[in-house]
């Protein structure tokens, strides 16, 4: 992997290789980190970070849930994003802010110093080359998401991603593009690192945040765009079999963007390719992030 030149680390821009931490850092042992995945897109008016303020807000919300005191203001963290994209000379990039309990205690409840970093690197389509056009074959994972009041799904915390890794690795091992997890209720939850949408009779169905999923910013963006297009949105508990019955299916996330799903568990969805509603929303999403449509909500944060 080619690493970028600069990284923001504890308040300073440093060479990538110098942003190191001790092996006895709390987060490495116990998953005590909170992070975000953010994208910067090139637009006709210059590079813009999409919904930066909302990502920073969610980072602080995750930190609040886990009592991780971030020693910077949200404004400082947002500015670190802009600065690190500028310093690396990127026009399009993925960004990864992370705040974690560092070195300073080994007990579970230790109040260690909190380290903060904002990295950025070049990233294409998360689920692979060509998937945004062709779609992926997905499977329902044998691993369920965590039950309510166990590990909070509403926080984007490092430890949560042991679940995501089990789901994603099992799917890849079995030859699928991505895994879909059920909640502890047995009803649909979300993908390993993506929210899920089904299209049924022209309406957009998605699982509720009570189904142990991350309240995705892309999910919210697509629901906003769909509403404006006059597409009905139904947020409800969805049994697994509706995956096999729906007309169209797609996953979404900052990394995965809008990825069509052409089959689940070997059953072809619709025509086995991206359907019309998926394509319409995918286009609206890319037009928005690339500044090809009007940014009426101030979601483009120019660097
Ligand atoms: N669910 C999980 C588990 C995720 O990791 C992500 C990616 N952050 C998402 C959903 C999608 O969230 P967003 O659209 O905010 O990137």
Automatic annotation (TrEMBL):
Enzyme class, UniProt record, top EC level: transferase
Source organism, top-level taxon: Bacteria
Tagged with keyword Amino-acid biosynthesis: yes
Key word Amino-acid biosynthesis present: yes
A GO biological-process term: aspartate biosynthetic process
Alphabetized Pfam families for the sequence: Aminotran_4
Protein name: Branched-chain-amino-acid aminotransferase
């Amino acid at each position: 992997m080619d690493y970028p030149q600069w990284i923001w680390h504890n308040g300073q821009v440093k060479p990538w290789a110098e942003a190191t931490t001790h092996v006895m850092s709390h987060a490495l042992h116990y998953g005590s980190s909170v992070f975000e995945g953010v994208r910067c897109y090139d637009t006709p008016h210059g590079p813009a970070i999409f919904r930066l303020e909302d990502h920073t807000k969610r980072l602080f919300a995750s930190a609040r849930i886990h009592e991780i005191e971030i020693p910077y203001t949200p404004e400082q963290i947002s500015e670190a994003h802009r600065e690190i994209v500028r310093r690396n000379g990127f026009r399009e990039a993925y960004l990864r802010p992370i705040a974690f309990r560092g070195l300073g205690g080994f007990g579970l409840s230790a109040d260690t110093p909190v380290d903060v970093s904002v990295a950025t690197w070049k990233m294409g389509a998360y689920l692979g080359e060509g998937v945004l056009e062709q779609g992926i074959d997905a499977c329902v994972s044998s691993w369920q998401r965590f039950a309510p009041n166990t590990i909070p799904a509403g926080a984007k915390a490092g430890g949560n991603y042991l679940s995501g890794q089990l789901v994603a690795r099992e799917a890849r091992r079995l030859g699928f593009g991505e895994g879909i997890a059920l909640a502890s209720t047995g009803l649909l939850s979300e993908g390993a690192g993506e929210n899920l949408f089904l299209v049924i009779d022209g309406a957009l169905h998605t699982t509720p945040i009570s189904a142990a999923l991350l309240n995705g910013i892309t999910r919210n963006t697509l629901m906003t765009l769909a509403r404006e297009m006059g597409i009905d949105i139904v947020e409800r508990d969805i049994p697994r079999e509706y995956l096999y019955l729906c007309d169209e299916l797609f996953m979404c996330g900052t990394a995965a963007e809008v990825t069509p799903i052409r089959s689940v568990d070997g059953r072809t969805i619709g025509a086995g390719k991206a359907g019309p509603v998926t394509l319409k929303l995918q286009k609206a999403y890319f037009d928005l992030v690339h500044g090809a449509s009007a940014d009426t909500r101030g979601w483009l944060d120019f660097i």
